[in-house]
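To whoever picks this up:

The parser on our side crashed when reading a file containing two proteins. I've narrowed it down to the boundary between the first structure block and the second sequence. Both blocks are reproduced below exactly, byte for byte. First block:
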Amino acid sequence: MKKTSTFNDIRLLIPMFLLNKLKVHPLTQGLYPVSLGKTNQQVHIETQAQSSQIYQLIYCQYGEGVLQYKNKQRSVKRGDLILISPNLAFQYQSKSDSKNTVYWLNFSGKLADDFAERLLMKMEDGFGVVGAQELAFKDFETLIQLGSRGYTATNVIHAVHVLQQMLSFLALQLRLESFNVHSTFSLEMIESLMQENLHQELNLDTLAHYSQLSKFHFAKKFKELTDTSPIQYFINMKIQHACFQLDNTEDTIKQIAESLGYSDPYYFSRLFKKMVGISPKQYRQS
């Protein structure tokens, strides 16, 4: 990567001896950083196509810029995320008349393609919107601090798992942003509706009507965001609440079942065991 900036540049390049260890260690070979940094003020980042299996991630914390990638030019602003696939050239240039802070990260590993795929499925040619996520900024700072903490095995293994956490979190935010933009309902509102009705049944007709969508489109969009059906999500929520009641109250299993809309305690117990792996009685005793 060729990179220049006016000042306040922080760059961490993982030494070759350490990269060789990361590539083979069972706790790090799946995903590891190759280099990363934080650039302030005027930013210019570019790379030429080269033979490697390294993904390049750019996350704009402040400012505005322009991305040239795959023969397209895009405006980049605060909260925008860029992911460049291996062996592809690109150029990112910040606007000189704005305060700019950009995090950048190069990563590789046996699971790099899988993590990248999770991100790219909700991006358009490597460009996506996640918003200004303080948790992600904090994770970047934690990774950058690796340089000052030293390259001990414990520090590096921790950094690798922070990287996995951060990429997973960004993939989730991409899905949420895409969902909110293309949907007429809020998952938060649906969750609130479910919480308020844990004591009874909620069918797909009611949920879809509340969201002002057809049953088909509501179920499709809900599963796209949560990887499960609306009804199964509601049942999961009921079982989670049952676990809380078993842990924190003296209510009988029958009382807990009735409070969650299940008139048959035996059916509730079978459902609970199917979901949790043990019966409500065993759960309480454990």
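<<boundary where parser fails>>
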Amino acid sequence: MSLPRNFLWGGATAANQFEGGVYEGGKGLNTADVITAGSHTVSRKITFTTKEGEKRSQDIMPFKDLPDGAICDVQDGYYYPSHVGIDFYHRYKEDIAMFAEMGFKCFRLSINWARLFPMGDETEPNEEGLLFYDNVFDELRKYQIEPVVTISHYETPLGLVNKYGGWLDRRCVDFYVNYCKTLFTRYKGKVKYWMTFNEINIMGMLPFFAGGVIKNNPQVQAQAVHHQFVASAKVVKLGHEIDPENKIGLMVAYGATYGLTCKPEDQVLAMEDTRRRHFYSDVMVRGYYPVYKLKEYERQGVTLVMEEGDEQILKEGCVDYLGFSYYTSNCVTSEKGEAIGGNFSMGVKNPYIKASDWGWQIDGMGLRIALNTLWERYQKPLFIVENGLGAVDKIEEDGSIQDDYRIAYLKEHIEQMDIAVNKDGVDLIGYTPWGCIDLVSAGTGEMKKRYGFIYVDRDDQGNGTLKRTKKKSFDWYKKVIESNGADLEIK
């Protein structure tokens, strides 16, 4: 079998993990720029100065409230991997040429909001930042590669954090709408596919990542994400008005959830875990708050502040498609179990599947389940915008990188994707594996946790030449795209 002729094969990245150029082109700082490197065992930290002037840092996971009056900032003595990333800012032509050689039909990237609005609340954008993305989109179009743009991907301008408290402040809605109006107007005809927020459901766990919010409790999470819901809905409507060709979607972190046993309690836990994921897409696809979430807010004592007209805004701003990340499935139980997780989600070990070196359970069949669940629930086109295996890659004596483990992972997932489309009838737009070129890990801040088809010479301390080298998976994925998914053979 093969995928539809117009299927969008490509790869995915985020500005804060690969772009670099943090102090160039008039760019301001964003949330990622004050988060340090971490490791497999040591949490990344956020750095800040207290109102008394004391320089401090605090673990990003689990995220606890920052002190009142804290100002997030860059400090001496820490390594901030976002500041250089893999230097796409200067090497975009080289990288895009390699994507074209693989045969990419699309490329997912994010706009660094603070590159266009350095503080986040300016009325007029930074022209030098706009020109950078003009050049990137023109380079992609030169190779007939469709840009797929995430408007906000863990990159809230630091000015909005320190001045307003991030997305907890309603004024961020207007700042975001102004930002998006700039994007839709400037890049009309160059960009058609947009996503408003990356993994918006991470607000329920890591509000600083998701929206520059320095407090963490149910009331704060609920109010901040409501502001993002309203902003997204306004932007969907605005984007269609500026260019009817625009396709504007949401993006959530997703995965199949299983009850560990057939014990009813385990199945209820699985239902509740799935609901936590569906809440965000329920609002953004259907245009209203589901009753189960409103009941949960009642139990938590959450009082959601809605302005007059918000409900109508949500109804009028439903997304065109649903983008999601899928790396792993989750297993839950009412009994004790060995804790394991991945992509900001925790559960217990599933005895029937293997896990990666970082403990993310490898479950290709779960992708088919996820695709069917979302398609049956919403009947909206789906887009797998992240999927992949983070692993340590070894350079052999001959200079090659034999990443058969990555090929095996991707093969397993593409096979299940094919079944979901051709057997189950799921409407799937495209597939963009995560970190198609090696980049900084969002969860750990490492470089050694690599996902790409292209190896980048950079280590966890920021050393290396940044030289790009094709891995074995490069030619394999090229063959997959050429055959439209029909040839998955591993040689």
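After patching the parser it read the second block fine. Residues 328 and 361 are 5 Å apart (CA to CA). The longest helix spans residues 218-242.
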